[in-house]
Amino acid sequence: MAVREYQKKRRRERIFRAAMELFRDRGFQETTATEIAKAAHVSRGTFFNYYPYKEAVLLDYGSQLLAGLREEVRRLLAQGREPVEVLRHLFRVLAEGTAREKDLLLPMFYELLNPDPVRARAAFEALPLGDLIAEILKPLREQGVLRQDFSLERMGRTLADLYFLSALRWAAYTPGRDLAEELEKNLRLLLEGMLVREAPAPGGL
Q1: What is this structure's pTM?
Q2: Which terminus of the chain is less hemmed in, N or C, by CB atoms within 10 Å?
Q3: Count of alpha carbons within 13 Å of 48, Cβ hemisphere only?
Q4: Contacts 24+ apart (CB under 8 A), 157-165
């Protein structure tokens, strides 16, 4: 790595650490870009060169969290854990993390709904939860127990949307409920379907 690139990398890391510390100490909404720049010993303009808006710092944080989850998921699958069990485990971990760091994660999730398409796309690319879920589902497709008429990408994104929207609704309307329990119910509903299954005819197969 060239010296200039190394310096830029170190500067970005310094800004990131300063921002996250301030977010946790003062709150995300209460922290300004000027305060972050001062804590990181850079100019306000330099902060915006690396992060065009405060939420971009959170997207970096979310990307790091997902990288850790990806390693955990791959380890569980390599150990032979059932994919559906791994998926449920992932949702439990996501629920616990969201409840624990609600004030940091929710502004990040709202970026996925940002009316500015550039910012919404940046959030989508920084938080590829759908890709991770598709990776979990792939063995089920190979085993022939997953329907073939929808792509793994679509299924993964649908389940990722289920998590993000459930978390936002929980925070806004039902913060007193157990998010892990809410996610488990929603996940079961999506996996098993909404339609009542016909009971087999008497004596039928």
Answers
A1: 0.91
A2: C
A3: 7
A4: 157/130, 158/130, 158/190, 159/87, 159/130, 159/133, 159/187, 159/190, 160/129, 160/130, 160/133, 161/130, 162/186, 162/187, 162/190, 163/91, 163/94, 163/129, 164/109, 164/112, 164/129
How does residue 10 score in pLDDT terms, banded at 50, 70 and 90?
Answer: very high
Per the CB < 8 A criterion, the answer to whether 66 and 130 are in contact is no
Residue 125 has pLDDT above 80, yes or no: yes
Q: Measure Cα distances from 19 to 45, 62, 124, 140, 175 in Å.
A: 15, 14, 21, 41, 26
User: Which of 144, 136, 148, 149 lies closest to 75 in space, CA to CA?
Assistant: 136
Contacts of 117 (CB under 8 A, 6+ apart): none
Q: Which residues contact 23 (CB under 8 A, 6 or more apart)?
A: 31, 57, 58, 103, 104
Q: Determine the Cα–Cα distance for residues 183 and 185; give it in Å rounded to an integer.
A: 5
Sign of the alpha-carbon dihedral angle for 37, 41, 47, 51: negative
The helix (run of H) or strand (run of E) holding residue 87 is helix 83-100
All structural domains of the chain, each given as residue ranges with its CATH number in brackets, are: 1-50 (1.10.10.60), 54-191 (1.10.357.10)
Alpha-carbon gap, residue 167 to 98, rounded angstroms? 7
